[in-house]
Design brief:
This protein is an alpha/beta fold and about 260 residues long. It folds into 2 domains: about 5-150, Rossmann fold; about 165-255, no CATH class. Helices cover about 50% and strands about 15% of the residues. The protein is built from 10 helices and 8 strands. Strands 3-2-1-4-5-6-7-8 form an 8-stranded mixed beta sheet, with helices on both faces.
């Protein structure tokens, strides 16, 4: 099978590494040469103009897609499966720019995939053949959780949560660290608290875990009464803001 990957940044790198676990060779288009066994790296589409690829993975930033869309269209044929991990670029726009094929798969991966700790990948498979499913599971499955959606636009609804969610938890941790730093100066305390929270959540539901810690009329309950409405409103408004921004980006890019 002939695979082409375009781009090898923070998310493209783990995609490439997963490809090499299952397939002997991957052709890569990247400005900076990547020297890795099994990778044939080029910096110009003209160098691969005569190759028929079975899979084309687009792993560039969405704002750069417009600059290379015509080049991608030239190397595709009616049998090419196009896999995009670009946020905000919907399948309809991909089909508009890459007209030779109608086979598109969109994946919204998150940072967990890059860390090899188990990511959460929202996937729209517009091909739905045994071949496409096997490829998707090989590259984006494994230790990762794959959530399949039937409608392309649903991929974008996961972005503010699965794509951005890790940053929300880290922000809370940083706020706690900044507060503890005034008296302790030790970030290990916050990191340990984060690990304790993860360990506890794996053993019981969130509500049960909170009730175990927050005794009635106690110190924790007093804090939670103040924090809960603030955090609920803040998280909701933040996710809504992220979704609005994603819609703006999508509208701007998919003209």
């Amino acid at each position: 099978m002939k695979i082409l990957q375009i781009g090898c940044g923070s998310m493209g790198t783990p995609v490439l590494e997963n490809c090499l676990k299952f397939y002997k060779e991957v052709t890569l288009i990247e400005k900076i040469e990547i020297k890795k066994d099994g990778v044939k790296c080029f910096n110009d589409f003209k160098q691969i103009a005569n190759i028929d690829f079975d899979i084309v993975i687009i792993a560039v930033k969405p704002q750069h897609f417009g600059d290379i869309a015509d080049e991608i269209a030239k190397i595709c044929n009616e049998n090419t499966i196009v896999v995009s991990i670009m946020a905000g670029i919907n399948a309809a726009y991909l089909a508009k720019k890459i007209t030779k094929t109608s086979k598109f798969i969109r994946v919204m991966p998150n940072l967990g995939m890059m860390l090899e700790s188990g990511g959460i990948n929202a996937i729209y498979d517009g091909v739905q053949t045994d071949f496409s499913k096997e490829f998707v599971e090989n590259i984006f499955g494994g230790v990762n959780e794959c959530i399949y959606v039937d409608i392309d636009k649903f991929v974008d609804t996961f972005t503010p949560i699965t794509g951005c969610g890790i940053a929300y938890f880290l922000l809370l941790a940083k706020i706690m660290f900044d507060r503890l730093y005034l008296t302790q100066g030790n970030d290990k305390l916050v990191r340990k608290l984060m690990q304790n929270a993860v360990d506890l959540s794996e053993k019981m539901s969130f509500d049960e875990a909170i009730s175990r810690i927050a005794s009635k009329a106690g110190v924790t309950e007093a804090a939670l009464k103040v924090m809960k409405p603030i955090m609920e409103n803040g998280v909701t408004e933040g996710i809504n803001s992220a979704m609005e921004r994603l819609n703006e980006i999508s509208k701007d890019l998919c003209k």
